[in-house]
Amino acid sequence: MGDPGGVKKVLVVGGIGITTCLGFVALLFVGTLAAAGSLAGGAAGGAVALAKGAVPAQYQALVQKWGNLCPAINPALLAAQLYQESGFNPKAQSPAAAQGIAQFIPGTWATHGIDGNKDGVRDVWDPQDAIPSAAYYDCELAKYVKDAPGDPTHNMLAAYNAGPYAVIKYGGVPPYSETQNYVKTITDLSESFARPVTRVEPSQQAAQAIQYAQQKLGTPYLWGGTGTAEQGGRFDCSGLTQAAYRTAGIELPRVANDQYNAGPHPSRDELLPGDLVFFSDDLTNSRAIRHVGIYVGGGYMIDAPRPGAVVRFSKMDTPDYFGATRVTAAGAEALPTAPAEEQTEEQAEEQTEEQTEEQAEEQTEEQAEEQAEEQTEEQAEPGEGPEGAAEAESGEEARREEPATPEGRSDEAGGPLVSRAPAS
User: Fold this and answer.
1) With 0-12 CB in 10 A as exposed, 13-18 as middle and 19+ as buried, what is 192?
2) Element (H, E) at 48
3) DSSP assignment of 64-76, as one string?
4) pTM here?
5) What is the DSSP string of 352-370?
6) Catalytic hit among 85, 191, 346, 412
7) What is the DSSP string of 203-268?
8) Residue 235 DSSP class
9) pLDDT tens digits for 232-281?
10) Residue 412 bears catalytic tag
């Protein structure tokens, strides 16, 4: 379904009319592009501290400590490797028998696994051992290729992917497309795990993403919705942000907690229109994120909040605000995708949830029709009917008082079943 006729004229959020907001957003486009010009070259660089919540709290101290084991690595780079390998899932196991949070194969673990927590056992399934071992292995590879020309970190990553001999043979990153892609992927992805040390460079794609999102104002929410014709053009929260940035040439992951890693993280006072803003019940762990919107300025975002609501402007300064991401093409491209078997399970879950939701809607409609018929038959006087429905409340109050889930915001469908917070 498209935008219902008249919705933009009457929908009000937090006392701000849609018509007023549209003019406001148009001005923000200009401001965003102007800021991009004035702040160009201000991207974060050289940061080794971890971004807020980017690494699950139970692993953050380990990654911060062991990520400084040698000059070739840093905490953000180590975090990017762990995320790429397993999504921080300590129980992950690949078809190739790679095991644990760092995805060591048995032979490599036998040679390079260390007893990180000094309990007398080298356990590949224990992050207290596996994370230190990942850092130790990186640093050992860096030693092997230390005399190769080029960037030491790039050479280390290339050795991780193709082996040290290939790096030595070719005098740096070898001409293998897989290896070159791996080096670029981890390097780009590490920027989303690093805490910025300067202002984050503005996004040139922000205005296009906002323009798309505002065109969808008034569109009904659909859990699992990505805006397809079969879904009536409806969205859930991350389906909307994914579609918005797709029109700007950037392909985001499907779920909100993965979208968080699609670029660097500006602070609250550095937000610019087009930034993705995220919400969670656990403010220490980005894997627990369950809602996302597109910031438009003035403390407001455009989001698809929950079943029964529509795409609209909402206030973003709420207690569950987690943080923000300034989307970059390189950051989005670097993100891993879910394995095929996980995608199949996710699709089954989505279908089950959608079927349940549709059945509930059908039952509600049938019950309403039956009640209306009964009331019509029972009316004593012609023209006397049931009381009209109360007007729907607008803005933040309505969003808080009519939660579709215990959390109050409804997250999207999908997401790998391992290492991801369950979708609400």
Assistant:
1) buried
2) none
3) HHHTTSSTT--HH
4) 0.67
5) HHHHHHHHHHHHHHHHHHH
6) 85
7) PTTHHHHHHHHHHTTTPBB-TT-B--GGGTT-B-HHHHHHHHHHTTT----SSHHHHTTSS----G
8) B
9) 999 999 999 999 999 999 999 999 999 999 999 999 999 999 999 999 99
10) no
